[in-house]
Recover the amino acids of this structure.
């Protein structure tokens, strides 16, 4: 039986996560409206401008999140919102809970309702799963950090990261610029880049450029195709713009024998002292090399059970008093397997399950006349 959601938001009195949002985010609201109403609002034509209000109902249990986005959608539409529950509150399951009241012209209420509801439902769903993950980890007595990932929806990252924070988990890096993360592909490509360009393109026709297309599974690199683009000046049809040729014998550039040390040292020269360096590692030896090279965080990717916890302990014991670093566990972590990944030598648990597999909370707006008549209009 799953634990009931905790109402603890980890925020001190007076703190508001909405204050973290950059001024530029409001431009997203205009983009959302442009997507939902790219031309004429036919149905809105029949509604008119009479002042009405609509009740926001929470119809499934979960954590309320996305208040600033909901507010801004209706502000843009010329409406106002009165909240009856603070953000981060737990909406009771198996009930119909009044969450907020929205007031404004009927046409504008209808114009903004789907944009606002979709955003609120998605953000609240992520916050709810995040809260469950955080509560499960705390129930084990673990003092580390539960985090999301960068595997967010393009164009919707800010909302999804915000939902994670409302739920009580760390949003992890926000983008490629906010932390250095060297994954396995970066490591082997570090060595690949050392081969002369001429040796890497020796299979291509004269005057053409080429690049390899790979299927990457863990550290295994399986070359599939070499894609050639025709020489400049050659007239081609769209169907012959790319010519796919099987990649004949394995090319020296494709060997996966990259250097973690080289990658860390190279990136540190340009990233400077202010950015953390996180290295994805598949084994004790790789993690040991990363720490020796100066990594701030080693991510033990897809290590589980005794291998995970034994590796973490050995690294902490070996480098105690010599290097300061954090150990992160990641890869395939779902709610049912979370507790097996936490332990005394694990500092961070990162998972995309908090934002990729979360269902949105069920919310709805119901319009009613301003005189607060007991007769409600149909759900919007």
């Amino acid at each position: 039986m799953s634990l009931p959601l905790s109402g603890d938001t980890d925020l001190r009195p007076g703190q508001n996560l909405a204050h973290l949002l950059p001024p530029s985010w409001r431009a997203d609201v205009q983009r959302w409206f442009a997507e939902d109403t790219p031309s004429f609002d036919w149905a809105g034509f029949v509604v008119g401008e009479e002042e009405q209000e609509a009740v926001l109902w929470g119809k499934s249990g979960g954590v309320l999140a996305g208040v600033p986005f909901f507010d801004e959608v209706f502000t843009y539409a010329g409406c106002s919102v009165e909240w009856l529950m603070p953000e981060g509150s737990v909406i009771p399951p198996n009930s119909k809970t009044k969450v907020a009241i929205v007031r404004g012209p009927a046409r504008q209420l209808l114009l903004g309702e789907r944009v606002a509801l979709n955003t609120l439902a998605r953000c609240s769903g992520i916050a709810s799963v995040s809260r469950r993950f955080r509560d499960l980890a705390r129930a084990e007595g673990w003092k580390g950090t539960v985090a999301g990932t960068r595997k967010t929806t393009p164009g919707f990252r800010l909302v999804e990261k915000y939902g994670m924070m409302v739920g009580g988990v760390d949003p992890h890096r926000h983008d490629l610029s906010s932390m250095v993360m060297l994954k396995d592909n970066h490591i082997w490509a570090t060595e690949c880049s050392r081969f002369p360009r001429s040796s890497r393109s020796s299979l291509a026709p004269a005057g053409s450029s080429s690049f390899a297309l790979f299927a990457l599974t863990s550290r295994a690199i399986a070359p599939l195709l070499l894609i050639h683009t025709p020489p400049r000046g050659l007239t081609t049809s769209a169907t012959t713009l790319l010519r796919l040729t099987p990649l004949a014998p394995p090319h020296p550039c494709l060997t996966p024998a990259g250097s973690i040390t080289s990658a860390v040292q190279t990136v540190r020269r340009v990233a400077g002292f202010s950015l953390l360096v996180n290295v994805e590692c598949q084994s004790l030896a790789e993690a040991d090399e990363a720490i020796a090279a100066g990594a701030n965080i080693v991510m033990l990717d897809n290590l589980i059970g005794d291998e995970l916890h034994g590796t973490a302990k050995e690294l902490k014991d070996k480098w105690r008093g010599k290097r300061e670093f954090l150990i992160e566990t990641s890869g395939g972590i779902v709610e049912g397997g979370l507790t097996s990944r936490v332990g005394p030598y694990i500092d961070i648990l990162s998972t995309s399950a908090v934002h990729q597999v979360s269902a949105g909370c069920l919310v709805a707006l119901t319009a009613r006349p301003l005189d607060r008549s007991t007769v409600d209009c149909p759900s919007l």
Notes: The mean pLDDT is 81. Residues 198-254 form one domain. The CA atoms of residues 66 and 119 lie 7 Å apart.
